[in-house]
Amino acid sequence: MEEEFFSESIIIPTNDRSGDLLYVEHNPPLSQIRKDSVKWNGIYLLLIHGMEGSSESHYMVSVGREALLRGYGVIRINLRNCGKGIGLARLPYNAGQSDDLETVLDFTRKTFTKDIFVSGFSLSANMALKFFGEGRPKKALAFTATSPPLDLKRSCDFIDSKAGLFYKNHFLSTMKEKVASGIYNVSDQVIQKVLKSKSFFDFDDFFTAPLAGYKNVLEYYHTCSSIRYLSGIKIPCLIVHAEDDPVVPSHVWHDINWKLYPKIETVLTEKGGHVGFISDPSPDYPEGRWLPKILMDFFDKQRKLLSLN
């Protein structure tokens, strides 16, 4: 994305007194870079990636590009020790780390604009739903959540089953590599225990939950599952999920009575996988990626409803 659009790297301290830093990529509105570009509409879009992703994940880049072309400014957030932020934090990210989202929201409001949209993907879709359902002050105008693991325990059970074997092995491998590298503030004994994890449940029990301050993994899953916060969401929200998602079980989606949540719009597709949503290339979707259009059409609609120019 840096090759197509100007990108500025920004380092933001977290607000938990850990000394950890967040590495974000700032793509200014195109009109600030090119005189003949679409006028800035006054809004910034914050994008947050999923598990073991980064600011350069395909969905972050494709949605960010679409947002810039529609007149938005964009900030792509790297979660702790992800992407170019590797080695800048001593604590890992987790699915309920809504304070880090608030940190970047506060920075954006202070530095660029108070008119902000947020788009979270996968693990960070859960984080966004939790954040906006926690009853915090409204620091964004609307948000989207793509492929969220609404119930962390049931999602863990699914990915730890035979159905999720490929993704379990992939994610566990990359997460264990980070632990083995010594970037986290843990003892050698903990590292060796974590490296023996055979499941997501074990990894979160040995590592994620205790470092996040929870007494055990079940408390972590219960406290951070976004399904508990849906009723608290007071700003417009769009949730997108695919029936064939190989990481997040669709039966959780169908157990929810979405009509109970008036602020939430939902899109459930038959195909799309996990934050993929790719079809054959067409004039409307040259790369075959149609998720950016769904998300940005929602944000454009919200902008018009709010009478923001």
- What gyration radius follows from the Cα positions, in whole Å? 19 Å
Largest sheet: 8 strands, mixed
Q: What's the pLDDT, averaged over the residues?
A: 93
Distance from N terminus to C terminus (CA atoms, Å) equals 26 Å
What is the succession of H and E elements? EEEHEHEHEHHHHHEHEH
Strand content: 5-15%
Number of strand elements: 8
The CATH superfamily of the largest domain is identified as Alpha/Beta hydrolase fold, catalytic domain
How are the strands of the biggest sheet laid out side by side? 1-2-4-3-5-6-7-8
- How would you describe the shape? globular
Relative helix content? 25-40%
Coarse structural class? alpha/beta
How many helices does DSSP assign? 10
CATH class of the largest domain: Alpha Beta
| CATH A-level architecture of the largest domain | 3-Layer(aba) Sandwich
* Uncertain residue ranges: none
Number of domains: 2
CATH topology of the largest domain: Rossmann fold
Helix-strand blueprint:
Blueprint: E1 8-13, E2 21-27, E3 44-48, H1 58-69, E4 73-77, H2 98-111, E5 116-121, H3 123-133, E6 142-146, H4 152-159, H5 165-180, H6 188-195, H7 200-211, H8 217-224, E7 237-242, H9 250-254, E8 264-269, H10 291-305
Parallel strand pairs: 3-4, 3-5, 5-6, 6-7, 7-8
Antiparallel strand pairs: 1-2, 2-4
Helix pairs in contact: 1-10, 2-3, 6-7, 7-8
Keywords: Hydrolase, Serine esterase
GO molecular function, one term: monoacylglycerol lipase activity
Protein name: Alpha/beta fold hydrolase
